[in-house]
Amino acid sequence: GQNIDQPTEMTATEGAIVQINCTYQTSGFNGLFWYQQHAGEAPTFLSYNVLDGLEEKGRFSSFLSRSKGYSYLLLKELQMKDSASYLCAVKGPSARQLTFGSGTQLTVLP
Amino acid sequence: GAGVSQSPSNKVTEKGKDVELRCDPISGHTALYWYRQSLGQGLEFLIYFQGNSAPDKSGLPSDRFSAERTGGSVSTLTIQRTQQEDSAVYLCASSAEGGQPQHFGDGTRLSIL
């Protein structure tokens, strides 16, 4: 099975940079997703990493190290609207479903 | 439609009643997933449909839960004899095929009194 750990809460200031870490232990690995979920809304897809390294997409970047079972989501030039829960999800060997972490609640302060 | 559509958006019912939740996936998406999210928790996988293959029901918490997908499109999740612990947001997602990025509906907020 899979076990996914990410911090429960983080706080950062508008305009700053924040890094949200995710570690996982898995019996098989086929990729890692990051989703953003605003309160009361559905999760929305942010990024997908299957190979080691950094994937950059505008203000958001995601990094993966498969040997370390580690990923992070980097958010630059934080905006108030970035306040949300960020979910790390690992795709297992069957590629049939994702196992989600409990999410990191990010609060951006003015 | 443009996105995944779920109905109803909210459902309040008495303990012991049966409920049926509906999901209309993105047109052309062959994979469909049901998840449950309790307050402040991550997503709990329930069931997965891929094309005409037998569904992966490994996440269903009890035999009171069942789901079907008709014609490879619309899916319904049925909960029989509801219990208070069934209260949660039930999210449906679809993807172009299994393992691809999933697109979520807005969910059904189920409250069991």
Describe this structure in words.
The complex is a heterodimer of chains A (110) and B (113). Chain A is globular. Chain A has strands spanning 2-5, 9-13, 18-26, 32-37, 44-49, 53-57, 60-65, 70-75, 84-91, 98-100, 104-109. Helices cover 0% and strands 58% of the residues of chain A. The chains are: A mainly beta (110), B mainly beta (113).
Q: What's the gist of this structure?
A:
The complex is a heterodimer of chains A (110) and B (113). Chain A has 110 residues and is mainly beta.
List how many beta strands of chain B DSSP finds: 10
Largest interface (C-beta under 8 Å): A-B, 22 and 22 residues
SSE order of chain A in H/E notation?
Answer: EEEEEEEEEEE
- Number of H- or I-type helical stretches of chain A: 0
Output mean pLDDT of chain B.
92
> Distance between termini of chain A?
40 Å
Q: Give the structural class of chain B.
A: mainly beta
**Individual helix count of chain B:** 0
Question: What is this structure's SSE topology?
Answer:
The complex is a heterodimer of chains A (110) and B (113).
Chain A: E1 2-5, E2 9-13, E3 18-26, E4 32-37, E5 44-49, E6 53-57, E7 60-65, E8 70-75, E9 84-91, E10 98-100, E11 104-109
Parallel strand pairs in A: 2-11
Antiparallel strand pairs in A: 1-3, 3-8, 4-5, 4-9, 6-7, 7-8, 9-10, 9-11
Chain B: E1 5-7, E2 10-13, E3 19-24, E4 31-37, E5 43-50, E6 65-69, E7 75-79, E8 88-95, E9 103-104, E10 108-112
Parallel strand pairs in B: 2-10
Antiparallel strand pairs in B: 1-3, 3-7, 4-5, 4-8, 6-7, 8-9, 8-10
Any descriptors?
heterodimer, A: 110 residues, mainly beta, six-stranded mixed beta sheet, 11 strands, B: 113 residues, globular
